[in-house]
Design goal:
- This protein has a single domain, classed as Flavodoxin domain (Rossmann fold).
- The chain is 41% helix and 20% strand.
- The chain contains seven helices and seven strands, in the order βαβααβαβαβαββα.
- It has a five-stranded parallel sheet, with helices on both faces.
- The radius of gyration is 16 Å and the shape is globular.
Length: 178
């Protein structure tokens, strides 16, 4: 089984990427690839740009990469109660190529933040909208107060209720992909 994990944040030291990477590491007997969303930079979406230049190769490459997976792990940052602009732009381009972006792959959807809400607003929005784009969300979780629960030295989630919830979510993902 192959798992593709990524964060919607283009920040170099993204806490959402750390969470996605850690979650992927919990998958037993899986080949894991963690994508760097920065590798899929695209020009700002516009129908005029699309008409003049066509669809960007990086958007096509992102879709192809998702297509290689048996399961997806996505951890989304929350910027002003929405996806980060970098990801939203890539997402918009991808929908022009194939509206079924996530290709009905089983998906673990997560969000985290340094604050007490843990990205819950974007998580709720994503849970409602991703199925319209081929998102087969089989498990989800929010991790509030990231810095209190994640050990940056070892890049691991501290033991406790959130660790147990994440292990259960990854198990559910792997079962759905089998």
């Amino acid at each position: 089984m192959k798992i593709i994990a990524f964060s919607t944040s283009n920040k170099h030291e993204s806490i959402n990427k750390k969470l996605a990477t850690y979650a992927a590491s919990l998958a037993k007997d899986a080949e894991v690839e963690v994508l760097n969303i920065n590798d899929y930079s695209v020009m700002m979406f516009s129908e005029d740009v699309e008409a003049a230049l066509g669809q960007p190769e990086n958007a096509k490459a992102f879709l192809a990469k998702l297509g290689e997976a048996d399961a997806l792990i996505m951890s989304t940052a929350e910027h002003n109660s929405y996806y980060p602009a970098f990801f939203k732009n890539l997402f918009d381009w991808c929908t022009r190529i194939d509206r079924n972006i996530f290709q009905e792959k089983p998906m673990l959807l997560m969000a985290t933040s340094p604050g007490g809400r843990g990205g819950i607003t974007i998580l709720e929005l994503a849970l409602k909208s991703l199925p319209r784009f081929g998102g087969n969300v089989v498990a989800h979780m929010s991790l509030p107060n990231f810095n209190d629960h994640f050990d940056l030295e070892s890049n691991t989630l501290n033991a406790g209720e959130y660790h147990e919830a994440l292990e259960a979510a990854v198990t559910k993902l792997c079962d759905a992909a089998s």
